[in-house]
UniProtKB/TrEMBL annotation:
Its main location: membrane. It catalyses: nitrate + a quinol = a quinone + nitrite + H2O. It comes from Candidatus Accumulibacter cognatus. The chain crosses the membrane at residues 15-33, 54-80, 92-113, 133-152, 191-220. The lineage of its organism: Bacteria, Pseudomonadati, Pseudomonadota, Betaproteobacteria, Candidatus Accumulibacter. It is an enzyme of class 1 (oxidoreductase). It is a multi-pass membrane protein. Keywords: Cell membrane, Electron transport, Heme, Iron, Membrane, Metal-binding, Nitrate assimilation, Oxidoreductase, Transmembrane, Transmembrane helix, Transport. This is nitrate reductase (quinone). Coiled coil: none annotated. Its EC number is 1.7.5.1. Dimer of heterotrimers each composed of an alpha, a beta and a gamma chain. Alpha and beta are catalytic chains; gamma chains are involved in binding the enzyme complex to the cytoplasmic membrane. The keyword Cell membrane applies. It is found in: Cell membrane. It holds the Pfam family Nitrate_red_gam.
Amino acid sequence: MNTLQAYAHNFFFNVYPYLCLAVFLMGSLARFDRDQYTWKSDSSQMLRAGTLRWGSNLFHIGILFLLMGHTVGLLTPHWLYEPFISPERKQVVAVVAGGIAGVVCFIGLTLLLHRRLSDPRIRLTSHRTDLAILIILWVQLTIGLITLPYSFGHEDASVMLALSDWAQRIVTFQPDAAGLVPLAWPYKSHLVLGMTIFLLLPFSRLVHVWSGFASLAYVFRPYQLVRSRRLNLPGGHNTPPARH
């Protein structure tokens, strides 16, 4: 690795993650504070519902499974799951489950992208950022699916352990990307593009994912008590308040 490659590697895997995380958090907060009316997904269901129903359901099911799987798979310490499952078997489970979810998500996203590009009315009402983020997600899913054959070629789970070690060092503020140097280009491209999606999220329609997480608070929200109020008038006559 020459000097330029070493510099780029250090930037993208030791510095870029924190830059993306800072923009992701601060940008989301700033948008919520300044432009709350844009905090939505801009549904086009009224223009064409059929393809949207299939595409949206498949995409959301797949992307939620992938997000949860990547988070748990990368950030779970090795010593925590080692008594129950070996790294090699864990990699097989991750590749099979992630592959199925990736294909489901890819089909749904392809339907959504085709819908926006093929329907003139939807294309005219779509923001450029809508199309851009769908294309970026489609490319990201494509690269993710390309990594599957590479993963089957590493039966010792060395790549999975290297990725997990890098991710856990990032979240514990001990960045060290040395273990990523020998990885194939699909892995590195997948990581960089994935971080870029978080960088762009506050400026796109994807910001509405925060609302999905926030809605979970309603499960633990106490019931709202509503009591009727009556006016006590002279003579013991109670009259309900006037309606406004």
